[in-house]
Automatic annotation (TrEMBL):
Residues that, per the record, bind Na(+) 2: V49
Protein name as annotated: Transporter
Molecular-function annotations in GO: amino acid:sodium symporter activity; L-amino acid transmembrane transporter activity; metal ion binding
Predominant subcellular localization, coarse grouping: membrane
Binding-site residues for Na(+) 1, renumbered to this chain: G46, N53, S297, L394, D397, S398
Compartment(s): Membrane
Region described as Disordered: 13-32
């Protein structure tokens, strides 16, 4: 039906008055390109392989069936992860534009790119506080005795108990873990008190925010200085840094695996990690957890993959890069478990606690559980230094990509600022530092948790859903495959992309979204339950990115209504006004297509003439020889042939 509607819009036989449309840039603007293909691959690896692979996947796999979790994990990789990764690579390389400008393939869906950019910005703000914590622990590890190894420090409380000190403390841990009605008070470990009482200076609630602590604030400042220094020259500088930041973590993970396997109790830890619980595979929540982990791990839905691909050469073989990076990301997640659980098994052996009680996820693993194991391990300070340096490099890689999304969005939208790119980057880093500064205060951990829980998961799923819908049904699967042919000289794996982009991708992301809404539970931080106003603030953060999708859509509808009303003679009189408006709003923008002049060939060849005509006075025509290069669907094609 949509094809017939669009056929009516091309029923004119002579050159007619054009519809209103924003004018593209009168001259082509040069965009940076990767110096070497390996820099692009390493940047993708650094972007996708991050902290989530080390501190999130092993725990999620352990809690959701152990070795059996690999079944839903690999299935979701096949049905969502790899297809969405390839989609974003294709879109970025084809348009050579950042996320805010790449979704001009449909006027009314331009807001999807802005939703990605805002979401990336929110994650960037709180993500660097993790890097600040890594820097704090990294500097603290340069001593003979780790500061969190015992309870003889001013920040320790009377409830602090070192499980490795004596048999009595071990019995105390076991007693409390099996008999919670005991009158004795719950002990805390030295690493837990070090993190809460010294690093964070944790208060009791979000309301008791306090003022930023100078030592953590300096680490945050250093973190943003490192980010600014590495991205100040764009990919020319970050492309060189990734040679180290992308490869060094693998050296450390491999070293930690070897060291962990030599410790007593390591076999018990690996058994907990890999022992399959096949009944979990039948549980719906396990599949939802797999889908969330895959999208989080691959960094899809943030725009960072699309942004990196926009710096690629038009004819680069990004299909090969996609297969390499997604396989590398999947392997790293599984392999990282062998660096985590042998250490947890060793800690279980030393404390007498079961592995499931010492295992934690997220910051609890990186800054409490793992440091505790390092403190009772031979050569602990050395392993602590390389462990936190590994976390630092993983965090910086992800931060480079997230920062690039927002900065590219600013420069692609306000092109006059390109000449001041250095100042834009410095200003961006300064603003993000100031916004993150409250998280260095005693109540900052609660703000961090709030942003971490609210600002990414739902927004990513929504953006992923609209990416599938736009490519498959709005722009057209067949047209997008033809765009891919222009870059790769073939339409590779077409049945697979059809299955995933048009069927499995939209369905699964929609199911995950509604499941996340239905099963949503207000976040907590320890025993603290966030108040109503805090949860309202969290939902406002979610809305601040998603709102761009309906907001831009309404704006484009208004523009389309005015345009099709004023120039009604362009549209068939048989078509109602609202259908003319909808047809026009769903079509690509005037400047949709390859950004570089030399890559505009085939059906995009007419774009060069169109842009040249736009530079002439009183000439705004977008119709040449009764042909619009950017009709959203080819009226000559039936629905079946489009797919």
């Amino acid at each position: 039906m949509l094809d017939r509607l669009r056929a009516l819009t091309q029923s004119r036989s002579t050159l007619q008055q054009p519809l209103e449309e924003e004018e593209p840039n009168s001259k082509e603007e040069q965009r940076e390109e990767w110096d070497r293909p390996i820099e692009f691959i390493l940047s993708l690896v650094g972007c996708s392989v991050g902290l989530g692979n080390v501190w999130r996947y092993p725990y999620i796999a352990f809690k959701n069936g152990g070795g059996a979790f690999l079944i839903p994990y690999f299935c979701v990789y096949f049905l969502i992860g790899t297809p969405l990764y390839f989609l974003e690579l294709s879109l970025g390389q084809f348009t050579s534009r950042g996320t805010t400008a790449a979704f001009k393939m449909s006027r009314m869906f331009k807001g999807v790119g802005w939703a990605m950019a805002i979401n990336a910005f929110l994650v960037t703000v709180y993500y660097n506080i993790i890097i600040a914590w890594c820097l704090f622990y990294f500097f603290a590890s340069f001593r003979r005795k780790l500061p969190w190894s015992d309870c003889d420090n001013w920040w320790n409380t009377e409830s602090c108990s070192n499980p490795d000190v004596s048999k009595n403390s071990t019995i105390n841990y076991l007693c409390l873990s099996t008999n919670p009605i005991n009158n004795c008070s719950l002990p805390t470990s030295p690493p837990e008190e070090y993190f809460d009482n010294y690093v964070l200076r944790r208060s009791n609630s979000l309301e008791a925010m306090g003022s930023p602590h100078w030592s953590l604030a300096l680490c945050l400042l250093l973190a943003w200085i490192l980010v600014a220094a590495c991205i100040i020259q764009g990919i020319k500088s970050s492309g060189k840094v990734v040679y180290f930041t992308s490869l060094f973590p693998y050296v450390v993970i491999f070293a930690l695996v070897i060291r962990g396997l030599t410790l007593p109790g390591a076999a018990n830890g690996i058994s907990f990690y890999l022992k399959p619980n096949w009944t979990k595979v039948r549980e719906f929540d396990v599949w939802i957890a797999a889908a969330s982990q895959v999208t989080f791990s691959l960094s899809v839905g943030f725009g960072s993959i699309l942004g990196y691909a926009s710096f690629n050469k038009f004819k680069s073989n990004y299909l090969r890069d996609c297969i390499i990076v997604t396989a590398c990301d999947c392997f790293t997640s599984v392999f990282a478990g062998f660096a985590v659980f042998p250490i947890l098994g060793f800690m279980s052996y030393k404390t007498g606690l079961p592995v499931d009680q010492v295992a934690k996820a997220g910051p609890g693993l990186a800054f409490i559980a793992y440091p505790q194991a390092l403190s009772i391990m031979p050569g602990g300070p050395f392993w602590a230094v390389i462990f936190f340096f590994m976390l630092l490099t993983l965090g910086l890689d992800s931060q480079f990509a997230l920062s690039d999304v927002t900065i590219s969005g600013i420069l692609d939208t306000f092109t006059n600022l390109r000449r001041y790119k250095t100042f834009v980057i410095l200003g961006y880093c300064a603003v993000c530092f100031l916004l993150a500064l409250p998280m260095c205060a005693p109540g900052g951990i609660y703000l961090f948790t709030l942003m971490n829980e609210y600002s990414s998961n739902l927004s990513v799923i929504v953006c992923a859903f609209f990416e599938f819908i736009i490519i498959a049904y709005i722009y057209g699967f067949n047209k997008f495959m033809e765009d891919i042919r222009m870059m790769l000289d073939k339409r590779p794996l077409e049945p697979y992309w059809f299955l995933t982009w048009c069927i499995s991708g939209p369905i699964i992301t929609l199911i995950v979204f509604f499941s996340s809404i239905i099963q949503f539970r207000a976040p907590t931080e320890g025993k603290y339950v966030f108040s109503t106003y805090a949860n309202v603030l969290g939902w406002l953060m979610v809305s601040s990115s998603i709102i761009f999708i309906p907001g831009v859509m309404i704006y484009e509808f208004i523009k389309a209504w005015k345009a099709t009303y004023r120039y009604e003679n362009q549209m068939s009189i048989e078509m109602p006004h609202y259908l003319r408006m909808l047809t026009y709003a769903s079509q690509p923008a005037k400047d949709w297509g390859p950004a570089r002049k030399e890559t505009r060939y085939g059906r995009y060849e007419v774009m060069n003439q169109t842009i040249e005509n736009d530079t002439k006075p009183n000439n705004e025509s977008i119709i040449i020889n009764n042909e619009n290069v950017n009709e959203a669907f080819d009226p000559e094609l039936e629905m079946t042939s489009r797919f």
